[in-house]
Amino acid sequence: MMRKYSLILVLIISTICLNAQENRDVMFYWGAYGGLNLNMHTADFQKLPGYPNCCPKFTGGNGTGFDFGALFEYPLQSKLNLTARVGLNSLGADLSETQIIGNSELVSSTPPYETVGVANAESEYLIESSLQTFYIEPGVDYEFVKGLLLSGGFRLGFPLEGTFDQSETLLTPNDVIFKNEQSRIRNESQGDEIPGLPGTLFHLYLGLGYKVPIGPNSFLVPEVRYYQALNQISSESWYASNLKLGVAVKFPVYESQEMKRIQEYRYERDTLTTYIVGLKSPSIKLVSESRKSLFNMIDPSTEVEIITVTENYLQELPKDAILTVALNTYGLSTEGAVVENPTIIIEEIESEELFPILPYVFFPESSSDLNSSKLNLLSKTEQAQFGMDDLPWATLEIYAQMLNIVGKRLQENPSAKITLTGTNSNSNSERGNTELSRQRANNVSKYLETVWDINPNRMTIQARNLPEFPGNIDRPEGVEENRRVEISSNNSAILSPVSMKDIIRKANPPTLMADPIVQSDAGVAEWSINIMQDNVLLRDFKGTGNPERVRWDIEIEPIPTLERPVQINLDVKDKLGQIGSVSDSRDIKQLTIRKKRFEMKDDKRVEKYSLILFDYDKADIKGINKSIVDEIKKKIEPNSKVTILGYADRTGEFEYNRELAGRRTAEVQKILNVKPENLAIRNIGSDILLFDNNSPFGRSYCRTVQIIVETPVN
């Protein structure tokens, strides 16, 4: 141990001796400090929340603790330093109060604990706190008298530990105990966290110190500092201030002193001349360079370096370069056919879409945690801001809000009730685990109760192993889909589809291609193609090297809004700085709903409906699906064009899925009974997947039939 302290002492003395050799400006100071805290707590509370206490009021207490860390000081002026400290401290103290308890029934302290009478008793109430923080302490030091420092600033403390012990102890008489507790101590707790302990403690400080030189620009600084608490350490009125008595040691860091170096250059040059096509002006550039150095010392602080530089240069003389640019624009139809010299028609169409509600909440294996369900869960505050009008026009994003839609509709339909049926995969760790099924349903119920204020009496909880209509238990996808909570209701409004209406803008052709044609002897450095209408930028494409063919998907915002031509501008800059530009234009025609109806032009209303999921490998139309199809049938007019599209998920072979989709579309047509001349049916199956099939809800939404109704509007 003595060797250790001796080594530390030698290192300190060595540092001081090295600093004594320096006679330069100080860049900054570094060091360490330590001290003793005299902790002074003030309080104004009767008890801490959740902890019974008979004390009339705690007013304060004292304690001691440690304080140590590292420091940094940056000189702003000759007497003013910017300071920063980082350290650890303890701010604990004991809050103690005594009280005379009058007319107390006293019990003997030895068995059989008989009552010895009624008398006054004195009781001590004690809270012993332990509070340790890691803190950051920025501030300033001002040397207002030589050697005497005035310091001030603030401290940000981050609690590492904040606990307390509590007890109420009979002081007198000595031979009695509390009757109910059969002990001289009651209301006792140990090692509990201080209620309401904040994440950050704020203090202002003011202090004095005196610099004692221990070497050139090195100081030992005895100091005293008082820290005034600005915020409470508890949810009750409880502040922890402290007075620190300590000492700091500071060492300087100087700017490095460089050796003076004199350089002498000697050059040997060789030049090669070449001619470059398209070069605008002559140039000469260094191709290679080699150096050899010879060093000589003139004196101990001055060194002469003789540098011999051998340079090889390339001289480039100009020759004319060619840069030509052209632009070919053409349209692409929906089917991909080329449309030469198109006039782009922007048409407004009334559109309505029905988004089904998938009433399933899916869970990972062996989990009942609702946070892992991929649904969007709201806080109580966010629930108040939730509105159906804010839902996005996207199936899976609407599904993410499914529980909030159900909660909102239950609020709007106070007589409606729901049944929550928890299920499991009945395999591996979930085999026969109906308790897990019940917990899943309970967690859904708890969310609706706590966030949406739904009375538990309106929610029936059921639990079973596999669902009534399970997924394929021989495939991982089916096993995953069977881990769920199913929601049903006695009121169809709770799980009815979400209806959205909008005016969409379609373009014909929907795509414009721009094909740049460039010839450049010098090579293309950069290019840009921008599409403008009436000085409004619609698209901007940029690149380096040879320009690429670009694709303008016209129906993606921003869409042309005026009946004026769009300009397609190509700008090319070659590697010599030459610029070539060319423009093309395409006429725009706007067919607004108002214009079409005023001019008696063809117009239509598009309505799109998606049936809620079919059961796995089923084509039956029942329940909500039957209600939806019946509702659609009412909206189909004699001149309506109806398209029925059948889909399936990726489970199963392509051919079988197309056949399954055919059965589903046939069932729909049986109910709709659309005239053959107005009907188109496409059995797509899993050839096109509507949604990502890596999730159970994505697969469920793929088991659908979409019905598109296009009705002419006069």
Notes on the protein architecture:
The chain is an alpha+beta fold. It is flat. Helices cover 16% and strands 51% of the residues. A hairpin with an 8-residue loop joins strand 11 (218-229) and strand 12 (238-254). It contains ten helices and 34 strands. Helix 4 (402-412) packs across helix 5 (434-452). The protein folds into five domains: 2-96 and 129-158 and 199-254, Porin; 260-318, no CATH class; 323-349 and 504-594, Sandwich (Immunoglobulin-like), CATH 2.60.40.10; 357-496, OmpA-like domain (60s Ribosomal Protein L30, Chain: A), CATH 3.30.1330.60; 604-712, 60s Ribosomal Protein L30, Chain: A. Strands 1, 2, 3, 4, 5, 6, 7, 8, 9, 10, 11 and 12 form a twelve-stranded antiparallel sheet that branches. Strands 18, 23, 30, 31, 32, 33 and 34 form a seven-stranded mixed sheet that branches. The chain has a four-stranded antiparallel sheet with strand order 17-16-24-27, with no helix packed on it.
By secondary-structure content and strand pairing, the structural class works out as alpha+beta
The CATH topology of the largest domain corresponds to Porin
Tell me which CATH architecture of the largest domain applies here: Beta Barrel
Large-scale geometry:
flat
Number of domains: 5
Strand content: over 45%
State the helix count: 10
Largest sheet: 12 strands, antiparallel
Number of strands: 34
Q: What is the residue-mean pLDDT, rounded to a whole number?
A: 88
Q: How much is the radius of gyration in Å? A: 42 Å
Separation of termini?
101 Å
What is the highest CATH level, the class of the largest domain?
Mainly Beta
